[in-house]
Please model this.
Amino acid sequence: MASETILQVTDLVKEFGGVRAVNDVNLTLPMGAITALIGPNGAGKTTLYHLICGRLKPTSGQITLQRENLPGKNITGLPPHAIVKSGIGRSFQITSVFPALTVRQNVRAAAISRMGRQFDWWRRVECDRPLNQAVEKILALVGVQHLAAKPVQNLSHGEQGLVEIALVLALEPRLILLDEPTAGMSREDASRIVQLLRQLNQKTGCAFLITEHDMEVVFNLAETIIVMHQGQIIAAGEPEAIRSNPDVRRAYLGTVPQ
Ligand SMILES: Nc1ncnc2c1ncn2[C@@H]1O[C@H](COP(=O)(O)OP(=O)(O)O)[C@@H](O)[C@H]1O
Ligand SMILES: [Mg+2]
Model:
């Protein structure tokens, strides 16, 4: 695997009954870059995403993660917590966090889960300096210090989107998978998320794979776009090449406009 690659997917297949939702997919993701995964409804994007983060096991094929200065690691079929530990962070559903706890407490809980240590109920977590410093750093990186003392359940939809990203960062990933991070948001909130993702990519060098249906977000953010259609990758390349690719236009529109 080339040293500048963080993830390599080889001959990946996922069948549901007779349906091949992911049909022989091959792709590589570059280290430190933002890649968007797009395609019409039912193309297989979410299935591919679940295969990478371990929620689904592939029918066949291989997924290899490459971290800086480490040998490539075969992560195919590992359970989600092992894949997180290997360095792939996935977005939390805001519904799976602790809604009555504050933003700071939730980020702290995510950081503790990453450290994999037993939660010591007899130790005052407020006294744990390295942990607290890591939590404050993440809150600052995402720009949500002003929300730190608020219960998650009291946040607006846009604020929850920011907190979801803070929770992923607490897992200390080198590759972050985000499934439609701006879904249901106002234009203003969505562009705030886009700006944040670009900043995080630059500051942390973390790679991103983003499934997204909002084309404005995709073309604004991604250095590389991968297009899926009927379980297969039909195009991959820079935004301008994808925009003018006839196969892509056919997949979306059914015809190629003259
Ligand atoms: N758990 C499942 N059981 C059966 N079929 C599924 C399941 N998940 C997805 N599919 C099918 O796989 C195909 C791809 O779905 P999906 O990965 O959700 O596409 P996308 O995210 O691109 O819209 C669809 O035909 C869908 O109906
Ligand atoms: Mg989907």
Observations:
- Residues 191 and 217 are 8 Å apart (CA to CA).
- The radius of gyration is 19 Å.
